[in-house]
């Protein structure tokens, strides 16, 4: 790029005549490097890229949602209750078509897309092929549109991640940045599909990244918001469901919510166990059967749909009706059960499609059923069916997907009502605890391990005990020496002990380590100890992690652990031996011992 | 610092975003059109089904319409109507409450909720929703005055029907202050006052209405049809309004016991009008009342005695029909059996006062004995009035025309309220 001409420079100087303009041009000049080209820091560029990913993912997801609807109209017709012929033929026939395409041409599109994205992040350095993105788009739209009991959110997550991966490859991002760009795209895809940016960000952190990472958080949030803006711009800002207002009238209601939490936990357990047992069995069957399995699942779903068409597809329109008292409790209970069965069939056979929507459907129906039953048993009490349906969604989400934080924020974001938080937390905790108690490995980790991948899990990380300095800290064998203490007094203090190193307090929170040898070799007995020390050592606090202690320790023999309120007060000492002893005592579980 | 030496990737990215946005806009527009067409098609089918009283089909069609236009308030309201038509009250109520959460001040939703709660006999809730509807927002109406008046009428009518006369009176008085001089609405207001038992106010409204219409008519005659209202006055509709106002005034006079006034108003009505059936009925009642009145001017002693005997028999017949034991006994077994058959057997103690009175006057129930005994005639007629009023109170409105005439006579003579 050519440097600026004299004329241009003059014009710029004239423009800079006012202080406001001068300030603006100063910042512009800082962006312009010596050669006159834009120079921005890589982190800033990454944020710009996150916004671009969000916008593009937003477009893709809008088109994806329309593709699903068009497929539905084309295959099943516009009515909510399709004809018997269609429900019997379409899911089965399209199941076979989708299976052939998935097995032969797009093998990485099978399943939900969440664990595939996580696999791409940790195994393939963020590489998701363009074919996978295209395949996921087309096959998921056909599968969901033809009535398979799956949802669009997880595929949208994979599509977003794939798009970001493609963009990263095109911009020749470094391997490190490629690994960061995938969750950014995943969050954008999920946020646009679910119209809920906070939920998407938390879900990506809990399930895709699998660990808390502050480095990527800003970009993830930006991309999620950008994609939601696009989605709302094109498809409107209406929420997925019309959620009735809710307020907790009486603390006694929490008992009913607790019951819903127990039911949600049991249902979650049944669902995960069913997937856990069915999926490997179906995969072990002969290869030719892989082409037929989604078709058979479609046929069975079609049979259910003759009487209960609600089990087909994502089913958000039915959730809305359930929230507004449109079904009796028996029907809601049946729908929850049938949806569980149909989703196990669709997902277990490897049909491309997500679990988000079916899980929410099951939760809403279960919650609605509990509410309607309660209404029948206690007609004097006004039971808010919509609130129970919402809480039920959270319970199933927490129990099946095992993303507890996401489950709480998902309900809050979808309902826009914070007064529901108490029932949600109670119900989700109970459901999560039941699911966690009887099924150690979360669903997505289970799926990854069934596919032969071992990916990091936030749940496992969360449940590993965090070791702190206080777990390794020992009492000092000898009292710390004062900096102004004479060498003679110091020698007297250590005379009864065999310690090799001594701590010296230099005052004002400064500490040093002195070797016994140096102390004994000193010639002037009246001189202060301060004169013998060489440099200072960092101090530790009891609550700091052992990882920090190890970094500070380096080759030092020991470090002082002091009181945060009084930096000259010694609480104990830590050495490398103490730290290793603490790790040994903690006895962490080894990955091989975890049952899949 | 990472310097972008080559702008092409960023420019291309920007171009891709612009192209992506344009393409998505095209697809979304086509998709929206299709959805709108489907929504309109299902809505039309739903309305057709609703008009054809096929409520279940209407619900299905409107649900489908809402799939393609899920935020369409009009569709949602119609779905509520369809749900109500299928008898799914709880579902409709839940829908309406959901709407109210979204649009707390929406008058239409509040009005529907008021009607629904009224149907469920939840009077307080219904009244609250009516109030909210009256003060609420009427979307799509630049001047919501007519809708508010209609809502006021409906709420007042509801209170009159409950009946909650005091609350209804307040609502009607408030309505009267707001109501324009439109004949149909004034007519309706008068009728509501009348139904609420405030015949005095009803009378004033009908009379001023008659006066107003007369003035209009005179204006027409004076201006030779060129007056402001001239084109309307004299039409069949205007004539009908006038006759309805006169009939209302007659009814109000009748209800107040002002029978002469009622006769005067009724005389203004022609025999071949829409009101003629009621007019004839009222005139018949007045005539029968005159025939039974022993106190009428210029009545001979013989006629007075004869009318008293007839009145006594009518009253005893009413008591017997009501299942009063002494009256049954005095009327004979057949009447007693009929009384019991109607399940109106009465507690004897409740009627002991009337029984004693009947026993006192019954020996005199002979035209010859009564002749010249105005004291007994007076006592007998009082007994007859009391018997009719008590029977009406205890046994309800199962009276014959004669009983009705006696009651009217009682009101005229004793000033008793209905």
Description of the structure:
The complex is a heterodimer of chains A (596) and B (418). With 596 residues, chain A is mostly helical. In chain A, 63% of the residues lie in helices and 5% in strands. Chain A has helices at 6-15, 19-31, 42-76, 84-104, 114-122, 130-145, 153-170, 175-194, 197-209, 214-235, 253-284, 287-307, 316-323, 329-348, 356-377, 385-401, 404-415, 421-438, 443-450, 458-463, 469-472, 487-494, 516-521, 546-553, 576-586, and strands at 39-40, 481-482, 501-507, 510-515, 559-563, 566-574. In chain A, strands 2-3-4 form a 3-stranded mixed beta sheet. A two-stranded antiparallel ribbon of chain A has the order 5-6. Mean pLDDT of chain B is 82; it is low at 226-233 and 333-344. The A-B interface holds A 33, 37-42, 45, 52, 55-56, 59, 62-63, 66, 69-70, 73, 78-81, 167, 170-171, 230, 234-236, 238, 242, 244-245, 317, 320-321, 323-326, 385-386 and B 1-5, 7, 9, 13, 16-17, 20-21, 23-25, 27-28, 31, 34, 38, 42, 60, 63-64, 66-68, 70-71, 90-91, 93-95, 97-98, 101-102.
Helix content of chain A: 55-70%
Run of helices and strands of chain B: EHHHHHHHHHHHHHHHHHHHH
Anisotropy-based shape of chain B: elongated
What is the strand content of chain A?
5-15%
- Please provide the count of β strands of chain B: 1
Strand order of the largest sheet of chain A: 2-3-4
Q: Give a count of the beta strands of chain A, DSSP E runs of length 2 or more.
A: 6
- Backbone structural class of chain B: mainly alpha
User: Main beta sheet of chain A: strand number and arrangement?
Assistant: 3 strands, mixed
Largest interface: A-B, 42 and 38 residues
In short:
The complex is a heterodimer of chains A (596) and B (418). Chain A has 596 residues and is mainly alpha-helical.
Structure keywords:
heterodimer, A: 596 residues, mainly alpha, two-stranded antiparallel ribbon, 25 helices, 6 strands, 5% strand, disordered C terminus, B: 418 residues, 20 helices
């Amino acid at each position: 790029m050519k440097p600026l001409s004299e004329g241009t420079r003059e014009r710029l100087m004239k423009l800079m005549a006012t202080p406001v303009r001068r300030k603006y041009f100063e910042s512009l000049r800082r962006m312009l490097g010596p050669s006159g080209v834009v120079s921005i820091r890589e982190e800033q560029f990454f944020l710009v890229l996150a916004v671009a990913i969000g916008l593009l993912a937003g477009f893709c997801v809008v088109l994806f949602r329309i593709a699903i609807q068009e497929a539905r109209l084309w295959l099943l017709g516009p009515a909510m209750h399709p004809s018997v012929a269609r429900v019997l033929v379409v899911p089965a026939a399209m199941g076979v078509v989708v299976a052939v395409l998935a097995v032969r041409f797009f093998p990485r599109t099978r399943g939900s897309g969440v664990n595939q994205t996580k696999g791409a992040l940790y195994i393939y350095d963020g590489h998701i092929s363009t074919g996978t993105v295209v395949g996921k788009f087309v096959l998921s739209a056909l599968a969901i549109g033809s009535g398979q009991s799956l949802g669009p959110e997880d595929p949208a997550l994979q599509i977003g991640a794939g798009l970001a991966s493609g963009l990263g490859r095109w911009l020749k991002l470094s391997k490190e940045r490629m690994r960061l760009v995938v969750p950014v795209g995943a969050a954008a895809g999920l946020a646009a599909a679910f119209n809920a940016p906070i939920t998407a960000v938390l879900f990506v952190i809990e399930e895709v990244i699998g660990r808390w990472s502050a480095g990527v958080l800003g970009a993830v949030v930006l991309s999620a918001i950008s994609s939601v803006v696009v989605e709302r711009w094109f498809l409107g800002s209406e929420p997925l469901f019309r959620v009735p207002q809710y307020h907790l009238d009486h603390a006694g209601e929490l008992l009913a919510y607790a019951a819903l939490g127990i039911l949600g936990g049991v249902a979650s357990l049944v669902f995960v166990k069913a997937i856990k047992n069915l999926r490997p069995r179906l995969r072990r069957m002969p290869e030719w059967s892989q082409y037929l399995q989604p078709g058979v699942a479609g046929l069975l779903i079609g049979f259910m749909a003759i009487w209960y068409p609600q089990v087909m597809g994502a089913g958000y329109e039915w959730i809305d009706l359930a929230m507004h008292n449109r079904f009796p409790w028996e029907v809601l209970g049946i729908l929850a059960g049938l949806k569980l069965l149909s989703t196990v069939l669709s997902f277990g056979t490897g049909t491309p499609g997500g679990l988000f929507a079916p899980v929410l459907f099951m939760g809403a129906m279960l919650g609605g059923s509990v509410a309607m039953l309660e209404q029948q048993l206690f007609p004097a009490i006004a039971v808010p069916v919509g609130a129970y349906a919402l809480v039920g969604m959270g319970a199933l989400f927490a129990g099946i997907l095992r993303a507890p934080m996401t489950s709480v924020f998902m309900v809050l974001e979808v309902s826009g009502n914070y007064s529901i938080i108490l029932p949600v937390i109670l119900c989700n905790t109970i459901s999560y605890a039941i699911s966690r108690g009887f099924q150690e490995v979360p669903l997505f980790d289970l799926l990854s391990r069934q596919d032969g991948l071992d990916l990091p899990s936030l749940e496992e990380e969360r449940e590993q005990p965090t070791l702190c300095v206080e777990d390794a800290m020992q009492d000092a064998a000898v009292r710390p020496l004062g900096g102004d203490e004479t060498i003679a007094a110091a020698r007297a203090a250590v005379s009864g002990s065999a310690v090799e190193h001594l701590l010296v307090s230099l005052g004002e929170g400064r500490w040093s380590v002195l070797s016994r040898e140096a102390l004994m070799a000193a010639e002037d007995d009246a001189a202060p100890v301060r004169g013998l020390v060489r440099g200072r050592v960092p101090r530790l606090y009891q609550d700091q992690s052992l990882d920090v202690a190890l970094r500070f320790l380096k080759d030092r023999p020991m470090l002082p652990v002091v009181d945060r309120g009084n930096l000259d007060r010694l609480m104990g000492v830590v050495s490398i031996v103490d730290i290793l002893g603490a790790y040994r005592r903690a006895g962490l579980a080894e990955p091989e011992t975890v049952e899949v | 610092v990472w310097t972008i030496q080559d702008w092409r990737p960023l420019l291309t990215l920007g171009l891709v975003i612009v192209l992506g946005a344009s393409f998505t806009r095209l697809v979304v527009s086509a998709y929206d059109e299709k959805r709108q067409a489907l929504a309109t098609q299902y809505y039309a089918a739903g309305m057709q089904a609703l008009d054809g009283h096929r409520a279940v089909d209407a619900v299905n069609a409107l649900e489908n319409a809402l799939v393609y236009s899920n935020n369409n308030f009009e569709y949602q309201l119609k779905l509520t109507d369809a749900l109500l038509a299928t008898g799914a009250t709880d579902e409709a109520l839940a829908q309406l409450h959901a709407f109210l959460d979204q649009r707390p001040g929406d008058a239409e939703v509040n009005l529907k909720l008021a009607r629904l709660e009224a149907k469920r006999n939840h009077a307080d809730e219904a009244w609250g929703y009516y109030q909210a509807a009256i003060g609420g927002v009427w979307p799509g109406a630049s001047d919501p005055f007519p809708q508010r008046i209609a809502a006021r009428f409906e709420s007042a009518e509801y209170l009159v029907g409950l009946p909650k006369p005091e609350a209804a009176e307040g609502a009607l008085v408030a309505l009267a202050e707001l109501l324009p001089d439109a004949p149909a609405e004034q007519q309706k207001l008068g009728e509501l006052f009348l139904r609420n038992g405030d015949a005095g106010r009803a009378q004033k409204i009908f009379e001023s209405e008659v006066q107003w219409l007369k003035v209009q008519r005179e204006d027409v005659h004076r201006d030779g049809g060129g007056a402001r209202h001239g084109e309307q006055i004299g039409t069949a509709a205007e004539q009908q309004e006038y006759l309805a106002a006169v009939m209302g005034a007659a009814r109000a006079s009748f209800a107040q016991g002002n029978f002469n006034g009622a006769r005067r108003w009724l005389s203004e009505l022609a025999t071949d009008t829409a009101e003629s059936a009621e007019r004839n009925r009222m005139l018949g009642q007045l005539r029968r009342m005159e025939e039974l009145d022993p106190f009428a001017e210029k009545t001979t002693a013989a006629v007075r005695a004869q009318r008293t005997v007839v009145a006594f028999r009518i009253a005893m017949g009413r008591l017997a029909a009501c299942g009063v034991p002494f009256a049954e006994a005095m009327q004979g077994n057949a009447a007693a059996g009929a009384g019991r058959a109607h399940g109106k057997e009465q507690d004897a103690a409740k009627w002991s006062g009337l029984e004693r009175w009947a026993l006192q006057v019954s020996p005199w129930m002979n035209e010859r004995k009564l002749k010249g005994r105005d004291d007994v005639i007076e006592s007998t007629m009082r007994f007859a009035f009391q018997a009719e009023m008590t029977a009406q109170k205890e046994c309800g409105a199962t009276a014959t025309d004669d009983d009705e005439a006696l009651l009217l006579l009682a009101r005229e003579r004793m000033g008793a309220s209905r």
